[in-house]
Design a protein that fits this description.
This protein is α/β, with parallel strands linked by helices. The protein has a domain at 94-169. Helix content is 33%, strand content 24%. The strands form two sheets. The chain has a six-stranded mixed sheet with strand order 6-7-8-3-9-10, sandwiched between helices. Strand 4 (62-67) and strand 5 (70-71) form a beta hairpin. Helix 6 (154-166) runs parallel beside helix 7 (184-201). The longest helix has 18 residues, at 184-201. It starts with 8 loop residues before the first strand and ends in an 8-residue tail after the last helix. Residues 1-5 have low confidence and may be disordered.
């Protein structure tokens, strides 16, 4: 297996506990290449934990995560690192280095794949200029390639974070509420760009969001998570208002 490229990711009876607190329990799902999954549910339901287990950044305490039919727990260190490199997470906050240019922030997405020599060279001499520019153009911020990241708006920063994730050509793109801190119009634009980028590259996308109205028409599946368990996994057309009300019962969060 070479990093799980083109393979289904299966979660079988996955659970995650932190001491006596169980965050996830009995999670069973599959993620196929090209799937666009909206992961929704109230805060504290375990969405961020689930995303990190899919990415191989957290180890499940129960059950198994399988890639190409092999449990991640059985992979050699090198194979596990290659899988992790093929999964990229776009966080709620862009986590950019504000003192560096947009160009170098995007290049940071290649560091897990580079040797120390490549990383050193990139810190001294601008490399991959055309590749970075092409990505930024696709996201509508090509003119900011040599701008300090700290001078950008929140929406522009999130677009840079998306470019940083995409430059490594991931097989799985995981978005963990990447628009939660943005205004509705900017959130809609950034969401659309993330979804379109995943569609164009035919990568699997898991989009964790409270803005289900934005992603509804673009996702192929919706997973509702509540109290660490999957309440439903169905096509977006089958997610009705009563189902959403049940999912968010007791919460004042939007959906």
């Amino acid at each position: 297996m070479e990093g799980g490229a083109g393979c289904a990711v299966l979660l079988r009876g996955v659970g995650k506990s932190w001491g006596q607190k169980q965050t996830l329990r009995d999670i069973n799902l599959s993620l196929e290449p090209g799937d666009r999954v909206a992961l929704i549910g109230p805060s504290g339901s375990g969405k961020s934990t689930l995303i990190r287990i899919i990415a191989g950044a957290l180890r499940a305490t129960e059950g198994a995560v399988e890639v190409c039919g092999r449990p991640l727990s059985e992979l050699a260190w090198g194979s596990l690192q290659r899988y992790r490199a093929r999964c990229r997470i776009v966080e709620q906050h862009s986590l950019l280095v504000h003192q560096s240019t947009v160009h170098f922030n995007v290049l940071a997405g290649l560091l897990p794949q580079w040797s120390w020599y490549q990383a050193l060279r990139a810190s001294l001499v601008p490399v991959e200029k055309e590749r970075v520019k092409s990505l930024l153009d696709q996201l509508g911020i090509g003119e900011y390639q040599w701008t300090r990241a700290g001078n950008l708006s929140g929406g522009q920063m999130q677009r840079v974070a998306v470019a940083r994730a995409l430059i490594a050509n991931p097989q799985i793109l995981l978005a963990d509420e990447p628009t939660a801190s943005l205004d509705p119009n900017t959130a809609r634009a950034v969401t659309q760009q993330i979804v379109e980028s995943a569609k164009q590259r035919k990568v699997a996308l898991v989009f964790c969001t409270h803005w289900f109205d934005i992603v509804r028409k673009d996702c192929t599946r919706v997973i509702g998570l509540r109290a660490g368990q999957i309440m439903f996994d169905r096509p977006p057309i089958a997610v009705s208002s009563p189902i959403l009300q049940q999912l968010y019962e007791g919460s004042d969060e939007r959906y």
